[in-house]
């Protein structure tokens, strides 16, 4: 072995060893994620999904060619993630980066762009460098991907659900959501049966164009869907995986509440969106004056209290609010109108870090109430959405007016801190009717094929103290808008994503939604320190490589001289 380095076959043996090591590394891949937040480590649900694929998944990422730095960074992060997906999915996962429309004529490009728009991918017009010295060109970038599996196709928008106004922070959130978006899209394509979601009606719930986006673009698109009139059935059929109660306006009777209660006791999931007070924008616009928000009298307080929450009889106002046209003065007898934040339309956010709403843009609410959690044995509570710290509560009777802030003193009253508006409840729920249901009511349930239970198995529900959160505006020119879209600014908040996540968390058992909980720490350089130490680091970057080369040359000459000088003396 000692003579091997001096043998003429030394380089052949070394080459064989290198090839052998590379071959073994290919058979047993090893990756080390050295980031504190596990940025490059797939979550267990995503890895299980990919390793369980029995048919190929093809992904076309539409981020190729010259792009601004932000899009290039997003493309690089997507490539890193999909490399991990390929490592887990092996031959059943393949991906590529393409530039949409490259090599096509104008008419073919137009057809392709329309197809992408129908899939929900909207382009962004950017200026990109063509070739060095040739200036810039305008082109359309589709920050998304098209995924095909089992003959089915879907698309994901890599920027959907995050603020378009947050710069690096928004881009960082988009990168944190990449794993969830790709894994969830693959999961939806892979499943052969989908949960059945019911939309409960019979107590004044909207059935008009106000719920068009909810029904057509959320429920029908992702789930089996049925409208369920509560008075048309003796019990709520157990075939429904979850029920939605959206902005009821008529009081619930005990027979109706018993049906809902026993549905929950059988393991049924609930998404409640409740307005306790009557406060509508239409009333303000018609009267052009103040009005008093009053109790709707829904009679749901005892049921929700038993499950662990109380929706308060108040209106929540927040300085962090959406904008509406407001009259700020008059010139020549004509009113001067400007878009200003209106405190009755708070922009809600997530502060708990729960995956349902983490890394998400603001969620728009309208005349929300505050919500409190109360003692309920065995129930775990998580706040999903809250107002900002600049909040105040108007107790019933609450006066609603166009000019709710008139003085500096009014501003000082917005000091009540974050107030919960949406709460997740998990655990074994106790029945409100455990000691209240009559023998006749129990017998009627038994006759309909449903046993009377006093507690539920492990279950979950979400309660939102705002009935408008899943409703959409309707305009004369455009018809139904997406939920969460301001009809004046056309800015779309993350209402649709939030509602989708709520339903998914309730009915999906795969755990894919947990991947939304990833933290991507944004590690920015300190600009002041950079400027102060600029010269030092420039010298280090220039001199250190040169010194290392000189040092290597000196050591090599010394070693060579020492080695061959010894041979000459022998």
UniProtKB/TrEMBL annotation:
Domain ABC-type uncharacterised transport system span(s) in chain numbering: 196-502
Protein name: Gliding motility-associated ABC transporter substrate-binding protein GldG
Keyword set includes Cell division: no
Statement: the UniProt record of this protein carries the keyword Lipid metabolism: no
Taxonomic lineage: Bacteria, Pseudomonadati, Bacteroidota, Chitinophagia, Chitinophagales
UniProt KW keywords: Membrane, Transmembrane, Transmembrane helix
Residue stretches making up the DUF7088 domain: 37-148
Originating species: Flavihumibacter stibioxidans
Annotated transmembrane regions: 9-30, 537-559
InterPro entries: ABC_transp_unknown (IPR019196), DUF7088 (IPR055396), Motility-assoc_ABC-rel_GldG (IPR019863)
One Pfam family linked to the record: DUF7088
